[in-house]
Amino acid sequence: MTDAFLRDPHKLSWRFPRTFWMANTAELFERAAFYGMFIALTLYLTRRIGFTDVEAGYVAACFSSVIYLFPTFMGILADKIGFRRALMLAFALLTAGYALLGALQLKSTALTALGLIMLGGAIVKPVISGTVAKCSDEAHRARAFSIFYQVVNIGAFLGKSVAAPLREQFGLEYINFYASSMALVALLVVALFYRNVDTQGTGKTFREALEGLLKVLRHVRFMCLIVIVAGFWAIQGQLYATMPKYILRLLGEGAKPEWLANINPLVVVICVVPITHLVRRFKPENSIALGLLIIPLSALSIALSPALEAVTGSSIRIAGSFTLHPLTLMVIIGIALQGLAECFLSPKFLEYASRQAPPGEVGLYMGYQHLTTCIAWFFSFILSGYLLEAYCPDPTTLSEAARTQWEAAMAGAGPLPEVYAHAHYIWFAFAGIGAAALVAQIVFKLVTDKIDRAETLTAV
């Protein structure tokens, strides 16, 4: 903790040093930039850059997975050059990356821009969280990180909220210009107000980090759990991989997938505290199982929207005051269920995962628990590209007759072309992944319990 911040150790407080608040302010702008760009990324890659759905899936998969893998290694760089220099480098990379992504709409420059954003984002993650830790003591760390997580959610909410009007009124590229301006503001905040915190004695070498990663990857029990829970994040990742294109292609440009995606963090913010209290005495595996039970229902609810439309028609009156398309209503329900599932799974996942680590190595293994998101988003973004191409294709790739029919449907003059008749199959596929994850988690629990009992008997 910084020596400029001294407090009575016997009295809890919400007071933290200026560096803490400046780091959180920078994080607010960084999250607003990232989520504004990320909610529209696959859409931008197809509409402006010219990638197919499958190609965009591969590009977004590499980007979104590596950005969760690199922070451990970028944290080592930050320890060596200092947090302030690392943040300035990160926000400079982000400012340039977002601007390049919006300005030069070429495949090569888009890949370069995403590389800059990936590196910048990977530096920001460990430095901001490290600052939060350094600016708080043990008694106040929970409060410090609760502020940090609220800032992350507020930034994500604001970024996605701004993305919709920017897309509609100016064009997709302006979302990237907005993101660049947010990153520039964060850079100015760091340059003008952020002061270094002590990082002495905290660093690893790149070799040690790589050896630790390889050790974790070779641990079968831990990696089995990581892959199982990846089934949860594979569905959650469809907020960004599939949902924006799916909504716009079936409902038209007036739909606002960016706003619909905000339902997830809203539910988490409202429900995570009471649900965490509710499951405080649950065994972690039972709480995780509840999350894995709910998450396939979120995909299934979207998949069932055609069945609802067959009963209600193309609009449903809500509370007698406004109407929604059945697909919009089912997407709202599905995303709300995602948020609810996250409240059951996330608080208990780290506790359960830590039990799978060898004695004395819990810290090492928990440092790589984000591999579950890395794996999930890599494979699910790729799968999304193939599913979209097969069941909900880009209208620009349709035949002339089908494209004319699609345009008429968007104007409310007739049904969608036959090529979209099975678009909801996409969500059946992801519901299946979620169901498989639930079954795998139950089998994992039974098998590991049997192994643990056998080892206990042998030891006795």
Descriptors for this entry?
460 residues; mainly alpha; Growth Hormone, Chain: A; 2 domains; two-stranded antiparallel ribbon; 76% helix; disordered N terminus
Kindly describe this structure:
The structure is a single chain. The protein has 460 residues and is mainly α. Helices cover 76% and strands 1% of the residues. The chain is built from 21 helices and 2 strands. Strands 1-2 form a two-stranded antiparallel ribbon. Strand 1 and strand 2 form a beta hairpin. Helix 4 packs across helix 6 and helix 5 runs antiparallel to helix 6.
Note the run of SSEs as H and E.
HHHHHHHHHHHHHHHHEEHHHHH
Count of DSSP H/I helices: 21
**Mind describing the biggest β-sheet?**
2 strands, antiparallel
The percent of residues in helical segments reads over 70%
- The CATH homologous superfamily of the largest domain corresponds to MFS general substrate transporter like domains
CATH class of the largest domain: Mainly Alpha
Beta-strand proportion = under 5%
Average pLDDT score: 90
Output the radius of gyration: 23 Å
Instruction: Please name the CATH architecture of the largest domain.
Output: Up-down Bundle
Shape: globular
- Which stretches are low in confidence, meaning pLDDT under 50 for 5 or more residues running? 1-6
Q: How many strands?
A: 2
Total discrete domains: 2
The name CATH uses for the topology of the largest domain is Growth Hormone, Chain: A
Distance between the termini: 45 Å
- Major sheet strand order: 1-2
